[in-house]
Amino acid sequence: MNVGFIGLGNMGGPMASWVIKAGLPLVVHDIREEAASPLLEQGAVWANSPAEAASQSDIVCVCVPGPPEMEAVSLGPNGAVEGLNPGAVFIDHTTNSPETVRAVGEAVRQRGAHMLDAPLDGGREGALAGEITLFVGGGQEAMERARPVFESYTKSVVWVGELGAGAVTKIVHNALAMGIDLLLAECMTLGVKAGVSTTRLVEAFSQGCIVNENMTFTKRLPQTLFKGDFTARFALKLAHKDFGLAGELSTRHGVPTRIIDLCQAELLEAMNRGWGDYDRTISSTLQEERSQVQLRTGDSEPGVGDP
Asked: Active site includes 170?
C-alpha cells in the first residue's frame, strides 16, 4: 500500500511521520519543500506536485488549513484529483465545508476513485503522539481500506455517515468545544471576582462531575433528552433558581455574563411554559422546536416525561 501525503504543516507533518513508522511507503508534497525535509530523511519520497503524489499512491491524504487550500490542492492545476488512479482512496483531513467536500468528491468519483472526509480532533499534541480521533464520512468499504493508514496516527476512528458528514461533525464539535471555553472563562471570572482563587476553582472543577466525569454527555443527556424522558432528576425550577443566584452574583461583583444571561433567559422561557417540575434538560427542547429537529438516539421514542 503506497501512501501519498499532501500538506505537511503542524498536523500533517507529524501524522505523515507515523505513516513511515508503520512501515508504509510514503510520497509527500507541500507548498514548502523544506517542510518535507524531516520526512525525506526518514525515507519518504518527494513529489513535485499534488498530482504527482496522487499518481504514485493507493491512499492519498490531504491536510491543509481550510476549504480554499483544499480545493486548490485537489482541483487546481496539477491537483491531486488529476493524478488519482482508479480505485484509489482520497482522504481529506482538512476542517472543511461540506459543500467543498462533496464537490471534490464528485470529481474524485469521476476518476473512478473513492473519497473520505476525515477531519481530526486532538490538536498538534495528539498528532505528535499518534493519538488523534477521526470523524469519517464516506463509504465504509473505503474506510476499511484506509484503516491501516488511519491506525498509524489515530487512537480512534468514528464513522459518522456519508461523504460530508465528517465535515459537519467537526464543525459542530469545534463550535461546542470553543463555546465551552467561553462559558468556562465566564464562570471562572465570576468565581474569582467573588473571592475564590483560580487555582482553587480549577481544582474544584477538575474534581466535579461535570469536568472530571463529563456527566452531562455520558449520563444526564442519554437518560433524558436523547430518550425524550424528562422525569425530573434535577428539576428545571431548581436549575432556574441556580441561574438566578449566578445572575445576582454577577450583578453584585460587576462581572458581565453574556452567556449565563442567555442560558437564564432560556430557562425562564421553559419555566413560563409550565415545565418547572420536569428535568432541567427539557429546556433544550426549545431549541429542538426552533430548529425542527429532535435529538433522540437509536430507536428511542419520546418518553413518558414529555409535556
From this structure: yes
